[in-house]
Design brief:
Largest sheet: 7 strands, mixed
Mean pLDDT: 95
Distance between the termini: 15 Å
Number of strands: 15
Shape: globular
Length: about 375
């Protein structure tokens, strides 16, 4: 492995597993028919779609009719937030609650509704990226309709206390959505144990194909579609289903969850090894929570004082190491990401954030080379 490139950006995307590609291939060719067609070929495609839905539901503790297949995580997030809000737009509850460190799919969906007159409450987080359950409870007053808090943060790896927050929402009659895109394949996912009404996943985060995701919608949760056309996905999402992608996503999720505990332990050990090496470098800081159940097993976010994250990313890329940065380049100037700002990281560390995210194929030799 020492002679090739080292990919430490699995939080951005993962390669499709060979087993997943193998499962998908027939649905690009001989079995790639429209599940809505009434002829034998169409009904075979319908059986494959129904089977994938049943397996997806079983994997996350849901019922098949609670699974809506989408075009990815961003669509699933938007459908959850706008779908519930628009379905109940005529009621007295006009407040939506979220956190300041959500993925932009959630934040921008909230922004769009705010421009339409909805009240949006954006909760602060502490220095490790956690939402305060007491502050969350205070925000869920009689005006609140929906809350959306991510299960795991994509930049600093903090795992939110979703079951606690969802229980608070349930007690107050508020619908609860969780963006679990970054947690997919990395954490156990049981929607009943989590207590959520809606949950989003995206296949390409756990070695499935891009362009396909799912939204869990608890039975009885009102949802207005974003895409109109036929009656696919129980009327929640029109359009001929991406059967190959759906089959691939479900196979990828099966494999990821079967390997979950073994892979998480191995990856966390390698992550901690990398962290220990990097913390020996002067003027470095670990972002997010320490090692343990409050952090994603494959996520390591480090701030290097006195140098930009983009400069480090480019230098590492030239050395054959792919990582990502917690900073964004806007209008020709370097600005900290919204997550870095939210946790209160001060200058000069705020501009030098680099995220290392490990994968199932990451080995000890690669970690040693990256650290050196």
């Amino acid at each position: 492995m020492s002679e090739g490139r080292i990919y430490l950006d699995h939080a951005a995307t993962t390669p499709v597993r060979p087993e997943v590609l193998e499962a998908m291939l027939p649905y690009f060719a001989s079995m790639g028919h429209n599940p809505s067609s009434l002829h034998a070929e169409g009904q075979a495609a319908r059986a494959a779609l129904d089977g994938a839905r049943e397996r997806a539901a079983a994997l996350i503790g849901a019922q098949p009719k609670e699974i809506v297949f989408t075009g990815g995580g961003s669509e699933a997030d938007t459908l959850a937030i706008h779908g519930v809000a628009r379905a109940l737009a005529g009621g007295a509850r006009r407040r939506l609650v979220t956190s300041v460190i959500e993925h932009h799919a959630v934040l921008h969906a909230m922004d769009a509704l705010e421009r339409e007159g909805w009240e949006i409450v954006r909760l602060a987080v502490d220095a490790q990226g956690f939402v305060d359950p007491q502050a969350f409870a205070r925000a869920l007053d009689e005006r609140a309709l929906l809350a959306s808090i991510m299960l795991a943060n994509n930049e600093i790896g903090s795992v939110e206390p979703i079951s606690t927050l969802a229980a608070i929402a349930l007690e107050r009659g508020v619908y609860f959505h969780s963006d679990a895109v970054q947690a997919g394949g990395a954490l156990p996912l049981d929607v009943r144990e989590l207590g959520v009404d809606l949950l989003s996943l995206s296949a390409h985060k756990f070695y499935g194909p891009k362009g396909v995701g799912l939204l869990y919608v608890r039975r009885g949760t009102p949802l207005q579609p974003l895409i109109y056309g036929g009656g696919q996905e129980y009327g929640a999402r029109a359009g001929t289903e991406n059967l190959a992608g759906i089959v691939g996503m479900v196979r990828a999720l099966e494999l990821a969850l079967a390997e979950l505990h073994e892979r998480a332990a191995r990856t966390a050990a390698l992550r901690d090894r990398l962290a220990e090496a990097l913390m020996a470098i002067p003027r470095t800081r670990l972002l997010g929570p320490p090692s343990g159940p409050g952090r994603l097993p494959n996520n390591l976010s480090v701030a290097f004082g006195g140098i930009s994250g983009e400069a480090l990313l480019i230098r590492l890329d030239l050395e054959g190491i792919a990582v990502s940065t917690g900073s964004a380049c806007a209008s020709g100037s370097l600005e900290p990401s919204h997550v870095v700002r939210a946790i209160g990281l001060e200058s000069p560390y705020d501009a030098g954030v680099v995220r290392f995210s490990l994968g199932r194929a990451t080995g000890a030799e690669e970690i040693e080379r990256a650290a050196s």
